[in-house]
Amino acid sequence: MKKILAELLTIGDEILYGQIVDTNSQWMSVELDKIGIKVIRKTTVGDQEDEIITAFAEAEKRADVILITGGLGPTNDDLTKPCLAKYFNCGMVLNEEALAEVTEFFKSRGRELTEVNRLQAMLPTACEKVTNQIGTAPGMWFPKGNKVFMSMPGVPHEMKMMMTDFVLPRLKQTFQTPVIYHKVVRTIGVGESVLAEKIADWENSLPKHIGLAYLPSLGEVKLRITGFGDSYQSLEAEITDLTTKLNDRIGQFIFGYGDDPIEAVIGRTLMEKKLTLSIAESCTGGYLSHLVTSIPGSSSYFLGSIVPYDYQIKMRQLGVKPETLEKYGAVSEPTIIEMANIVRAKFNTDIGVATSGIAGPGGATPDKPVGTVWIAYSDKHQTVTKKLQLSKDRMINIRSASIAVLNLIRQSLPK
């Protein structure tokens, strides 16, 4: 079955200037994927007639469906309608149905319809008017051969209602679309290039209708397996089998599937095992505790934390031995061992974890450069430590160290 391709065009200088964030494209991409339409490009164009018309022409060459948002207001800088009229070589007329709708919109709010707002009802003759249930700018559906242009307001809640009520159902009627099935495999503790080497032959043996994408982020690489076909059930079964074979290769790095981050997976595991957790974190400054408590239900396994950032707090409030700090320093394996063991005892939890390091940009020494971090895991059976050599960026170090601790918990939990 032929793939149906879509291109998304957002129009407006305010997006290019960074004054408004384009959230519309992300939402539309998700919804189009659900009905088997693949988005191949997202383009933002400023308020320039020639640029807009060029974008229309280029999008038509690449895609079957061109969805346009923005530029439908009644002011001189709103150029989408006149540009569409020019592109489709048609005139603009007052659409009586649209005029009645915009008149009622203002009347229902106790406001007079101005001449400027009346212009909202001026539409290109080549389009089918699409009612805007919650705004003043109508949508416009333009069929062109076996392709479709659809123009919608840029206001997110107006666009979403128009997409849901009209565009998505109409696209399903207009195009015969394949099934698109995604499976996301989440890995941690391994780099993208190393991962690619480990699964190279598995990836090379994938059938043509199934593809693999690497989605790296701090401390994690997502593997997105995408299949195209006629049957959801057969794709699901095929990709499930492929995932099983993938797990045989890199199972030690896989922590979950789908949308759940590592903190959610760890939380679920702790709940299932009925284990409790406490944290002593220095260089991460509470960020690790934030990740843990961002998961609903974390109160059932997370008892509390202490952030002993200063030497004195490490000694007086936490209880690290002064001689340990004096001999080895705060960023050391002996110190991190004491921190993890002590916090576990203080909070009377099954597990205690700790972080201590040099987040930067200052505080480095010749033998402990910025990015040097020690982490530890402690339970009644063992204490496990790990030394990290991270980056020179403070926030990256804080985030990376916190993720590394969560992975250390995953690796060290009793089976």
Task: Please write out the topology.
Blueprint: E1 4-11, H1 13-16, H2 24-34, E2 37-45, H3 49-62, E3 65-69, H4 80-87, E4 92-94, H5 96-108, H6 115-118, E5 122-124, E6 128-130, E7 139-144, E8 147-152, H7 156-174, E9 179-188, H8 192-198, H9 200-204, E10 210-217, E11 220-229, H10 232-250, E12 254-257, H11 262-273, E13 277-281, H12 287-293, E14 302-306, H13 311-318, H14 322-328, H15 333-347, E15 351-357, E16 372-378, E17 383-389, H16 394-412
Parallel strand pairs: 1-2, 1-3, 3-8, 13-14, 13-15
Antiparallel strand pairs: 4-5, 6-7, 7-8, 9-11, 9-12, 10-11, 15-16, 16-17
Helix pairs in contact: 2-7, 3-4
Sum up the structure in keywords:
415 residues, alpha/beta, Molybdenum Cofactor Biosythetic Enzyme, Chain A, Alpha-Beta Plaits, 3 domains, 6-stranded mixed beta sheet, 26% strand
Structure description:
The protein is elongated. A six-stranded mixed β-sheet has the order 2-1-3-8-7-6, sandwiched between helices. It has a five-stranded mixed β-sheet with strand order 14-13-15-16-17, sandwiched between helices. A four-stranded antiparallel β-sheet has the order 10-11-9-12, covered by helices on one side. With 415 residues, it is α/β, with parallel strands linked by helices. The longest helix is centred in the middle third of the chain and has 19 residues, at 156-174. Helices cover 41% and strands 26% of the residues. It has 16 helices and 17 strands. The mean pLDDT is 95. It folds into three domains: 4-174, Molybdenum Cofactor Biosythetic Enzyme, Chain A (3-Layer(aba) Sandwich); 179-257, Alpha-Beta Plaits (2-Layer Sandwich), CATH 3.30.70; 262-412, CinA-like (Maf protein), CATH 3.90.950.
